[in-house]
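Hi L.,

As promised, Cysteine desulfurase:
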Amino acid sequence: MRKDTVTQTPTDPTPARLSDDEAVRLRADFPILRQSVGDEPLAYLDSGATAQRPTSVLDAERAFLETVNSAVHRGAHTLAALATEAFEDARATVAGFVGASVDEIVWTANATDALNLVAYGFANATHGRGGAAARRFALDPGDEIVLTEAEHHANLVPWQEVAATTGAVLRFVPLDDDGVWSVDDALALIGDRTRVVAFAHVSNVTGQIAPVEVLVEAAHGVGAFVVLDACQSAPHRPVDLPALGVDFAAFSGHKMLGPTGIGVLYGRADLLNALPPFRTGGSMITTVTLEGSDFLPAPQRFEAGTQPVSQAVALAEAVRYLEAVGMDRVRAHEEELAERLVAGLAALPGVRVVGPPAGVPRSGLASFVVDGVHAHDVGQYLDAEGIAVRVGHHCAQPLHRRLGVTATTRASTYLYTTGSEVDRLLDAVSRVRAYFGADQEAR
């Protein structure tokens, strides 16, 4: 780890997971989890979409707004200096969380914005923006962008647009009947024409964990760039992005105990300083004339306009909360809950779990189909039981199309999830088919 990187305390390589008692104690830090839905205590199993925020995060943002709130990087008065210091301290905290340097962390509106920033940087370079330094990102007709069929739309649609404007070709790693892709199929697609390999570290539908280092080695071996969607990994497991070797990565605040309205782009410093900006305007320039403009170095070259300052402060507090718990312990806790989820759901008649089978490591989520019952009906039934889950295609329509379904029900866990909540879900799902008469129809 480089000397300008905020360091993290080493952790036990085989940590104990959080006990149910510890998860219960952590729940007390989250005001929203104290409520009931109807007559049932809330079991929040939708953290894969948006995680809840502890009091310390809520307090950090409120304290900033009440005592320091001011525009950053553009004022000489006391509040402006304090706000700028808090803003950049937050950047250093988040950088340390993923093993990066402070100049490798760009604030964005969300992870989707971050992925668009990278994709459109490639398109702008192709169309001559950024000069000689940006030429490394230019795409020629027939160059290939390798994705998987499992990608979230945020890591698919931007690359479709890039291909449409540059003549590049999209290539897709296929999925099997469970929605899982294989490393062999991925490696078979990476060749001399590959310029970009973009994929999710953890699938938001199946929980599949990608072999990042293997794909990085293959991509870099042919001179391709690697773009990692870390939205479902950074909040749930230790992630050192420079150690993984990826060139760019994106994750969002609201999935990791932080606020909405802020995302993070990681990029290698040399690449960020060569990538043409996606969004332009104030605060990202050195000199502006009527004829043209010069841009600041990264990360400020990508941070045009008013920034999400209070959100950055709150996200840094969320990072400190996660670090205090221990990311190794968060991962162990969620993976144990995932095993419990998958095994329990797979044992229920008429329930199909998608993704890796029981016994194969996955992140702490499980998506499933209940025979004869639409996912939206499953979600409404569970909601009546006080259990919050996600239903739909989870912004991954091609994956669901490959599975032959329009929607799935997804239960996702976090550090505040208890084993008893998983058991409540399993018990409720066991009654869904009978409630809707689907068990009778199958006879």
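The CA atoms of residues 80 and 203 lie 40 Å apart.

Thanks again for sending the construct details.

K.
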